[in-house]
Specification:
Chain lengths: 314, 639
Amino acid sequence: MKKCIILLASLFFAVDVYSQTITFAPQWTPQAQFAGFYMALEKGYYENEGLDVKIVHPGVNSTTSSVRMLLEGSAQIAGQQLIQAIVERSDGMPVVNVMQITQQSGLWCVSRNPISTPEEMNGMKIGRWKVGFSEFCDMLESYKGIKVNWVPFINGINLYVFGAVDATLCYSYSEFISLELAMGKIPESNILKFSDFGYVCPEDGLYVTKEYYDNHKDIIDRFVRASKMGWNYVRDHREEAVDLSLRYCRENHIETNRAHQSMMLDEYLRLQCDPQTGRVDYSKVAEPVFNDIVGALLNTGYITNWVQYNETIK
Amino acid sequence: MNAAAKTSFSRRLSSTVVLITSILFIVAIGVAAVSSHLILADEAHKSAENLLDATIKEIENKLIRVEVSVKNTVTTVQKLKNSPEKMYDITQGLVMENDEILGSAVAFVPEYYKGVHFYAPYSFRVSDGKVESKQLGTAQYDYFYSDWFQIPQLLGEPCWSEPYFDEGGAQEYMSTYSYPIKDDQGNVFAILTADISLSGITEFLASIKPYPSSYVSLISRSGRYVNSGVNDDLRGETVFSTQFLMGTKENEDINQIAADMMAGNKGKHKYRVGNKISFAVYGPVSNGWKASITCDYRDVLARTSKMHMILVLVVLVGLLILFLSCYSTIRKLTKPLTDMSESALSIAKGNFNTPLPDIKYDDEIRHLRNSFDYMQHSLTEYIENLKKSTAENERFESELTIASDIQMAMLSSDFPENGNLGLHAMLKPAKEVGGDLYDFFLMDKDTLYFAVGDVSGKGVPASMFMAITRSAFRFIAKTGAPMNDVVSQINNSLCDGNDSQLFVTMFVGKLNLSTGELEYCNAGHNPVIVNGSYVPVKANLALGLMPGFPYQLQTVNLTAGSRIFVYTDGITEAERSDKEQYGEERLLECIRGLKQSCSDKEVCESVVKSVHDFADGNVQNDDITVLSITLKQTTASLA
């Protein structure tokens, strides 16, 4: 009888555990940038943690972003960049970082002509994303005392390919690879890597609302644990991860190619390494780095309120 | 039989002919193959380049028709820009006017019409052929950041968009031609567009197939395949990403083609993937796209490769026939040679009367047969002569041996050896019989007569003359006449009837053993050595040359222990291979080097050995004669 009660209790808790449904919203359309999450779902790591995870990507042309989905409640966990999260916190949005994925910045500027310093961007017509990332552009102009003729774009590399801009901002794991696959090898002299000039802002991380964090810490821990397992598996099985990413692209009608996804995965895994140790441990953003970014955003007037490290990074 | 066949002349010659012919064929086929391949490849390159030019022209014509329609509409838009509702009519008209245009929009910049953020009337063809219109810009579709609007606006010039898949509409690849419309100040205020389907172009490109596995590719500005000549898997691929797909990332040639093509260059390039060698011709299209035709060389060269295979087979069969016919013909032609070889073998075995085969044709083989026949007769005759001459030679040699034995027997060999006198002599003829002589005899117990002579010439005549001279000496010396008389009489005797003009040099001596007086006469002979020194001799004339010649007598007194050494010029004129002669100095040195205690035999042997060693194997050209006499004691010395 006692055993029966224990069994029933176990079943009750099991049912409770497996009934946790979570929607995860990556910050962009399907690609190998999110391969670790696809893999965790594919290999049942989330399921093993008692989570029923759904991955819902925001649309390319839609106004919905991953954070908006988070705030609206259509997603419980979202991916986004640290600098955006700081701005959101400053604006009063209660977002909390629960996992830092990349440890380095992959933000580059590719110019049609050789370029060696950010100061040379002054007066140039440079493409940048229409949505997001404007914080960096404002900080850059403010710190370097330059004025750039920014040309917003929604997606892709075509402004640069058609010669409509002098240069374009790009991520080393995304647009830069598209550029090289479209135009061939880009000379190193035409690439400006902002991390070489002191821009050490870690980028992608996982975010939840403060309320969700306070009430579902256990679920978050399980999600993070399973996601790390997914990324670790991807690191050792890259071809399989590329196949899986391509499958997600096809299912979402994203036109891409294997070379792009494979090169993206390699670069993204590189950005996950600690620049000092070269190891991957998904460590939290260091407080001084965080405070430096907050200070810089305050100085440029991009934000008006100081953002507390302990309230943002968990 | 097998061994003979293996080394037969016919097989060797046939093999050589076939080998040489094979080499010539291989070289000829190789040169022909390479030449034809080069010509075909060159023609294929030119043909592909012409085809590419024509293809590009066709694509451009299709694009130009749309471009012209749009350009013709631009003025209307400019005229009616202040009547926004007319824009629907304009776009409808453009779509209806040109069957290739599936949709058209006039998209204005933000707030061009005051209070209106988006204004983009869009007309499009629907399934039943009618044209409908709608407003394109909405809060959800912010067209200001679409490539078709933003790029021509920034560039200030028209352009064709990147191909895109129209998921919501035609379900096919489309491209949009966008024309920026400017106001009087040159500012762009609207973009006029025309959408076309790319299916017509891709179907046209798919129909171009100069070779079974060749394909045409149309590449957009961003390197994407507008069409895929290979398969649909290339959707989303670029000219650089396909190398990743094919595993040819490191292929420099393919990279070079992709880079060259994307740089907008026109060209031709060869590349290899695995065992497959292909070439691509490529060139730019007027709208910034690039077209290429890729051909596999195996396709290009397929016809000649088949022809070369047939040629090789024909040559192989031909070579086999050539070998067999050569072998048969040569064997037939060389049959007489084989027969003659057998006859020659029989002749060689002594059957000189073996018949030779008859030769049908008057050719080299018949000449050889006749020569062989002549040789056979000559050989038979020669063998007969040889037999005769051999018999004669044998007889002559036998006689010569006998003559030699007689001559040797004539020479005294009973050398006296007692308390007073020691004597020894040696004669080594250069031939079977010689012309040298020596002789000695004791007239009484105190008187020794001796002589050493050398007849001119050698062989039998000289030996005969030597025998006469020796007999004359022995006969005349026994008369007891003085030595000069003895020599004169021998001279006269030899001169008488000397038709052969032979002569003899001679040293004649009479030694008184009791007194030691040596009475001697020298007739043109080598001087004698007494006690290691030459004694003075008068030259006189050799015997047999001048009858009545007055020979002069000489005397010398010897003491006990004196040694007389007489020799012929065979000693001093013995030659080495370098023509240097033994000479009188070496002789004196040899004599002086001998101990006094040496016997006369040892003296003779030592001198002959010294000469022999000096000659060092060189042939002895002249007779060698030595005579050594030792006067051990005299009566006076006893007293």
